């Protein structure tokens, strides 16, 4: 079986834990109370690599993913480059379509329609956020993507099947990443109190749906059956602290540094950091901008039982789950031909 070099596929800084990967994968997932995402991502990608080879043997073509990038947002460009590197490493064909920031809405719809009708394309990503003048039409553009090519699971049609069947065709990659983390922790979520900070359509709300679903078996009790509270911009700060302090699991997805402080966390709680933003390292002239999560990591890790870091926590698993979704969509499309 093919073995990934994590160093190779994940360009971002590696924790020393990777040096232990060969000897004890499980020990590396959880060091002290820190739950790293890269070994989990590696496991998913190893499976994807095998599945991609099987797909190629069976259908004599490579699955293909296309990302649409509008404007020159540097972080978005980096994320798309990461997706490309990881998808290609697994054996998936990848193309990026770059549009200028001031593209007319009708031209963007044309691009989506062209990809919808291109039989060689299995999945379409519309990289978010869109430039300001298009932001209020985000849902319209996303819903223009054919649901059987909706690799991000962002379309209203996918969202509705999620709500109605609880078995969506595709799970939104970041939601799937949180699921992987909870499976790794391997403790029943059923009956626990979860606080999600952030109510976005693509992260907070679908996460709440997944975690509060009724459980069907012992595996699903690890990721559902919880009492879920969603906190958001309108939640009074004092109440936010109260809700968090009483929660067994806190999941933050707002993209603002240090929203979650250690005084808000109950001793022994699980803290999953889904947020990502850029922050200066310090106030000196040599300061640089780095990716940070929502959680005041160094402080919170002293009280939390499990905590995910940023970078190196939820993010890498999210990309692996995206790749896994693409393979699922490609197989479904081939079967339906
Ligand atoms: N169409 C989409 N747009 C956006 C999504 C998405 O899932 N679909 N999510 C985010 C951006 N994003 C993927 O697109 C993303 C962001 C960050 C990471 C990640 O792995 N981050 C690293 C740190 C960054 C680095 O060092 O490269 C980490 O957390 O370790 C993955 C995916 C908004 N837009
Ligand atoms: Mg992360």
Automatic annotation (TrEMBL):
GO cellular component terms, A-Z: cytosol
The protein's annotated pathway: One-carbon metabolism; tetrahydrofolate interconversion
Coiled-coil regions listed in the entry: none
Domain named Tetrahydrofolate dehydrogenase/cyclohydrolase catalytic: residues: 35-152
Keyword line: Hydrolase, Multifunctional enzyme, NADP, One-carbon metabolism, Oxidoreductase
Record domain Tetrahydrofolate dehydrogenase/cyclohydrolase NAD(P)-binding: where: 176-333
A GO molecular-function descriptor: methenyltetrahydrofolate cyclohydrolase activity
Catalytic activity line of the entry: (6R)-5,10-methenyltetrahydrofolate + H2O = (6R)-10-formyltetrahydrofolate + H(+)
InterPro entries: Aminoacid_DH-like_N_sf, NAD(P)-bd_dom_sf, THF_DH/CycHdrlase, THF_DH/CycHdrlase_cat_dom, THF_DH/CycHdrlase_CS, THF_DH/CycHdrlase_NAD-bd_dom
The organism's place on the tree of life at top rank: Eukaryota
GO BP, sorted A to Z: tetrahydrofolate interconversion
PANTHER family: C-1-TETRAHYDROFOLATE SYNTHASE, CYTOPLASMIC, C-1-TETRAHYDROFOLATE SYNTHASE, CYTOPLASMIC-RELATED
Assembly: Homodimer.
UniProt-recorded name of the protein: Methenyltetrahydrofolate cyclohydrolase
């Amino acid at each position: 079986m093919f073995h990934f070099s994590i160093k190779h596929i994940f360009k971002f800084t590696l924790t020393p834990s990777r040096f232990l990967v060969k000897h004890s994968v499980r020990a590396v997932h959880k060091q002290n109370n820190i739950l790293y995402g890269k070994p989990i991502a590696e496991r998913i990608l190893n499976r994807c690599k095998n599945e991609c080879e099987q797909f190629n043997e069976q259908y004599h073509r490579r699955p293909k993913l296309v990302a649409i990038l509008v404007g020159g947002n540097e972080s978005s460009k980096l994320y798309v480059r990461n997706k490309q590197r990881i998808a290609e490493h697994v054996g998936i064909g990848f193309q990026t379509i770059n549009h200028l920031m001031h593209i007319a809405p009708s031209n963007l719809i044309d691009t989506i329609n062209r990809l919808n009708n291109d039989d060689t394309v299995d999945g379409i990503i519309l990289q978010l956020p869109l430039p300001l003048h298009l932001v209020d039409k985000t849902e319209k553009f996303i819903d223009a993507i054919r649901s059987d090519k909706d690799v991000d699971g962002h379309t209203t049609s996918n969202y509705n099947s999620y709500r109605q069947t609880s078995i969506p065709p595709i799970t939104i990659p970041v939601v799937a990443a949180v699921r992987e983390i909870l499976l790794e922790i391997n403790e029943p979520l059923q009956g626990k109190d979860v606080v999600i900070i952030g109510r976005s359509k693509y992260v907070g709300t679908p996460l709440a749906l997944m975690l509060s679903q009724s459980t069907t078996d012992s595996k699903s009790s690890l990721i559902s059956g919880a009492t879920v509270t969603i906190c958001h911009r309108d939640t009074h700060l004092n109440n936010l602290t109260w809700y968090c302090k009483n929660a067994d699991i806190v999941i933050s997805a707002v993209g603002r540094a240090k929203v979650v402080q250690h005084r808000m966390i109950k001793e022994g709680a699980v803290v999953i950091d889904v947020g990502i933003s850029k922050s200066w390292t310090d106030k000196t002239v040599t300061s640089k901008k780095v990716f940070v999560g929502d959680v005041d990591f160094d402080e919170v890790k002293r009280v939390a039982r499990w905590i995910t870091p940023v970078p190196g926590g939820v993010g890498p698993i999210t990309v692996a789950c995206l790749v896994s979704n693409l393979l699922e969509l490609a197989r479904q499309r081939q079967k339906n031909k």
